[in-house]
Design brief:
heterodimer; A: mainly alpha; 8 helices; about 0% strand; globular; B: six-stranded mixed beta sheet; 16 helices; about 25% strand
Chain lengths: ~220, ~475
Amino acid sequence: MKVLKVNPVVLILINMLVPTMYIFRHGTYLQTFFMVFCSVLLLVTGNVKKLVAFLVLYGAIYGICFAGIYIGLLRFLVGFFVIVIQFVPCFMIASIIISQYSSTQLLSALEAIHLPRTLVIATTITLKFFPTFRREFSYIRESMRLRGIAFSLRRPVESFRYFIAPQLFRCAALAEEVTAAGLVKGIDVPVKRTSYFEEKFRFTDGLVLFVFAVGIAGGFVWNAS
Amino acid sequence: MECIMRADHLSFTYEDSKEGIRDIDFKIDEGEVVLLTGDSGCGKSTLLKCLNGLIPAVTEGEVRGSLYMEGSDYRDLKMFDLNREIGSVFQNPRTQFFTDQTTSELVFPMENYGFSKKEMDGRVEKLKKAFHLDHILNRRIYTLSSGERQMLALACARTLGQKVLLFDEPSANLDYGNAMGLGRLIAKMKKKGITVIVADHRFYYLDGIIDKALFMKDGKLEVFHSEEEFKNSGYNTRSFDIFSIEKEFRQKKNFGPCLAALEQVSYKDILRDVSLKLHKGEVTVLVGSNGAGKTTMAKLLCQSIKPDKGSVSMTDLPFFIMQDPDYQLFGTSVANELALVKNDKEAIRKCLEYLNLYEYRHAHPFALSGGQKQRLQIGMALLCDKDVMIFDEPTSGLDVSSMERISGEVCRLGEEAAILVISHDYEFIRNVADRIVYLKDGCIRENFLLNRDTVTKLNEIFRDMEEGGKNEEIEN
């Protein structure tokens, strides 16, 4: 099946609007709409595995909230999870953005919506960090196994200590390295950045935005009636 | 020829240490190939960072004296002015690449400098031809081999049409074939009038094309105005022609029992019917181009992966010394790092004294310099009591004297244990090898004891690897 590619600016815009909308309207309708909308978006962009993972996550959080009504012990958690559950759609869209676009494409998209350069660079570097970390994590686990200090649940504190200290040093080094890589390639040039991957605004992007807008409008009608 | 770069009494001291460079004077003309060399920690990288502006932009410290680029003082130039003219090829791929995709990476500088889409298309097409990037573009960067990575890094450093190229230890991450390929590429760029500055310990791949050698010692600089002058300087420059090295052969004959073996092992499409035996008291060196399957063999021995066919037999997990020590250090102090291996205070003290690390025993392992970390790894091997050890490129990025010292350690460990070394450092191999195993395209092509009669075979293997590199020859 041909997967749909959604313009990153559209995705970022939607992701900014979702939490904002909660300010004006709340309740089941909006939450359900966002969840359905984002699920369909994950499906058409070919992220079936991610969709399943998010649905499981959603179900689990929902379960905790529901259980909280009956189990007094969980009640104090409900307040927290009620908020978290509303952000699941945002995470879903963020996962599409990260998997479909490279950091430079994001850089261009973020600039297109006129965010300040420093914020844009900080965001891109943060996004770059996760995949790097994931790759290094497997090296480190392997190395710990060969040293005979493998990650073990029987010694959680020790395992964690062996693992976390080198990570902190690596983060510091990585931050400097990434900054250097950006600087020698002119990330600080004070001209408007151009983009090699021109993301045209396609019909499908319009359609996505349209469905989103109709859904939100529907929310207002729902609440009014 | 016009002077393109000049340093005038340049000094730099790091904020948190006494190290740095002192009173540096030099002049580099347009189109010259300049070698910057000296022992580990002599200040090569520091000088290189001064040249591309990362000092003082990222690394803090005190700069005195002046640097000039085509007559303008560095102090009046912004980072982006400098890097419009200077392309940097770093040693570490993490530092080298900002994005995770090859095409994005290639156009990244042009986007930053605001090139139009049409201009970018034109340049990408040109670079694609010049550096044979057809198979490289539109891929994730971490799927590239080290040779491909080097090629991409080089293409990226030329996207803006930079006049000066800086290389930081290119030989550390390249096999012999790829390093020789890089040498030919640099020779071509020299013909086109591009100025190339290479900082490296090893320079066999630059034989015959060096115009100037800058030799650093303890932060001070000595300038040689020709390759000839540098070769006659008394510094250990014999690695210009690596095959001319005269070394004693180890000529050991009695090896102990077989401690680890791979029998008729196949793994995916990487290895086919590979057999290897490691004997007590024998140092086996595994050679082969990048991507030949050397690391996969090591992983099989470490039982990180299981073979599809054949068997791996050994009694215990081997001790594995990784190329990048940062992945292997977990202790809270140098002494604690060794205690994780063997909790014996007396043995640790002796070991640290032997390695000249005793005064650092309370320091955090990550606070050590690169060479010290490597020594700490050796210390771990000395204490570990394992009878099989694997070293992955233990000498990459080491100067000649550090390499000699590591050779001594490996030979010493080889008295009691079975050792497998993965290396493409010819001189090091000549120092330590009892047996040579040549891996090519997933099969073992040669397996012989190294002695006076078989050394020509080893030389042929290296020439064969160079030919392999030539097949990927580039037009520039």
